[in-house]
Each structure stands twice: as C-alpha cells, then as structure tokens.
Amino acid sequence: MTSTTRSFSAPRLLAVLVTIITAVGAVLADLVIPASAVQHLRNDAWPPHAKFHDAQYIVMTVLLSAVALTLLLQRGNPTRSRMWAACAILATPWLGLLGATLFPGTAVHDPEFDNGSILGLHPQVFMAVILLTLLVVAAAITARPEAGTESSAPSRSR
C-alpha cells in the first residue's frame, strides 16, 4: 500500500467530503439551481445590499473550503492539529448559519417560499447539522491515539 493511499484515513475522507459540499453548496443553491437561486441572489425582492451579503457568504464558503482542503491534502498523514484546524474552518459557515437564526428579525427562508422540512428542520439547517456531525466525528476519531495522526512525519509504506 502506498503512503498516499494510507494517508486518506476515514477522518480525512469525511473532512474532504464536507469540504466539497461546503465549497459547492452555496454556489449551487444560492446562484445556480433556479428553484433555490430565486430565493437568494436571483430574488428580485431582495435589495442589492442583501444580495451583496449572500454573495459575500458564497465567496467566504469557497475560500474557507480552499484553506481547509489545502490543510487536508498536504502529503502524508495530517497532524492532529491540522485535522482539527481544517474541521474548525469547515464548521465556521455552518455554525454561522445556525448562529444567524438567533438574531432578532432573521429567518432561515423568506415567507413567500415554502421549503418544506426534513425531520422538522429547514433543509439548510438539516444539512448544517449533518455536516457539523460529520466534522465532530472526524475530529473525535482524530483525537484517538490509535488514529495515527499525532505525528507530522510522512507515512511510510510497510
């Protein structure tokens, strides 16, 4: 088995999966997919400043994903601190989404749109919970001593 193959552990793969979803999710949902883009950047009822903040969110998620992916795809097994940093970076937009619901006058969706629910949660909130759970699992597995990510030394073929 090569060192490249060995370095793609379960936590790393989970974090890379969350990275990909985070990087493309807002771009697709808020800009590209017509049914959801009409609720965001393509919503004629939104003032330009609201659209600016949505565009800012889209760019932010892509940039945070790029930073996390850089940490995750470096050669060898990622160190524990690199994995945790990548997970924290990836959690930022999703925690921001959940935290935004606590501000007065905010809503997860505009009242003219009915997005349904998944297990009683708005689909975006449901996705945030799932992805944050995957990041917690990746970080928890990485925290185990036998996960083998403590050393920053490159992996060797055995």
Textual characterization of the structure:
This protein is an all-alpha fold and 158 residues long. Helix content is 62%, strand content 0%. It has helices spanning 3-6, 10-32, 34-37, 48-72, 80-100, 123-143. α2 packs antiparallel against α6 (123-143). The N and C termini lie close together (7 Å).
Radius of gyration, in Å, reads 18 Å
Proportion of residues in β-strands: under 5%
Distance linking N and C termini: 7 Å
SS-based structural class? mainly alpha
Unreliable stretches (pLDDT < 50, length at least 5) are 1-6, 147-158
Number of helices: 6
Q: For the residues shown, what is the average pLDDT?
A: 87
Specify the overall morphology.
elongated
Q: How many β-strand runs? A: 0
Biggest sheet record: none
Helix fraction by DSSP (H/I, runs of at least 4): 55-70%
Secondary-structure element order, as H and E? HHHHHH
Could you give a short description of this structure?
The protein is mainly α and 158 residues long. The protein has helices at 3-6, 10-32, 34-37, 48-72, 80-100, 123-143.
